[in-house]
Amino acid sequence: MTEGLIKIAAGIAAVLALLAGLYFSEQYVEGRGYDRAKAEDLAAIEKVKREAAETLASEIQETRKAEQALQDITNTQNIKDAKNEKTVVDLSDRLRRAADPAGRLRDPHAARCGGGGSSTPGADPAASGDRPADPTETGGLLSAEFSELLRARIREADDINDAYISCRADVYTVRAQN
User: Fold this and answer.
1) How far apart are the first and last CA of the chain?
2) What's residue 47's pLDDT?
3) Phi, then psi, of 88 in degrees rounded to 5
4) Would you state the pLDDT for residue 136?
5) Are 131 and 141 in contact (CB under 8 A)?
6) Cα distance between residue 130 and residue 39, in whole Å
7) CA separation for the pair 94, 97 (Å, rounded)
8) What is d(CA 1, CA 7) in angstroms, rounded to the nearest whole number?
9) Which spans in 1-118 are helix H?
10) Contact status, residue 104 vs residue 141, Cβ threshold 8 Å
11) Which of 104, 110, 109 is nearest to 143 (CA)?
C-alpha cells in the first residue's frame, strides 16, 4: 500500500509538474505574443508619426510659400502705392502753384483759345464783379466759385487718400498681430 501511495503521490506530482510546466509555457508564449503585438503596434505608431511629420513639413512649406507670395504682393503694392501717393502730392502741388495770389486758378489753355472763351460776343469782360478791370489779366481766370469747387474736390481727394493710407496701416497692424 505504501508503494501504491507513493505511485499515486508520484503521479499527482507528475501531473502537477506537467500542469505547472503548461501554465508557465503558456505564460511564456503569451508574453512573447504580447511583446510581438506591442512591437507591431509601436512600429505602426512610428509609421504614423513619420507620415504626420512629412505631412506637417509639406504643409509648413506650402504655408511659407503662401506667406512669401503674400509678402511679394504686399511689396509690389507698397511700391505702387508710393508712386501713386507721389503722383497725388505732385498734382496737388501743381494745382496750388497754378493758382494766382488770390487763390484762383487759371485755365492753362485759355491763351490759345483767344479772347474770353465762353463769353457772349459783345459782352464786357470787365462787367463781371469777380474779374479785374484790366482785360489782359482776365484771360483764362476761373471764377472764384469754380476755383473753390476745385479746391474742395482736392481736399476731398486728399481726405480719401489719407483715409486709405490709415486703413491700410490698420490692416497691416491687424495682420501683424495674427
Assistant:
1) 95
2) 96
3) -60, -45
4) 46
5) yes
6) 100
7) 5
8) 10
9) 2-98, 110-113
10) yes
11) 104
Angle between helices 2-98 and 144-177 (to 10 degrees): 160
pTM above 0.85, yes or no: no
**Burial class of 104 by CB neighbour count within 10 A (0 to 12, 13 to 18, 19+):** buried
SS3 state at 99: strand
**Phi, psi angle pair for 163, to nearest 5°:** -65, -40
Question: Are 55 and 124 in contact, with CB atoms under 8 Å apart?
Answer: no
Q: Which residues of the chain have pLDDT under 50?
A: 112-117, 119-129, 131, 134-136
What is the CB neighbour count within 10 angstroms for residue 130?
13
Rounded to whole angstroms, the Cα distance separating 25 from 42 reads 25
Note whether 140 and 105 are within 8 A (CB).
no
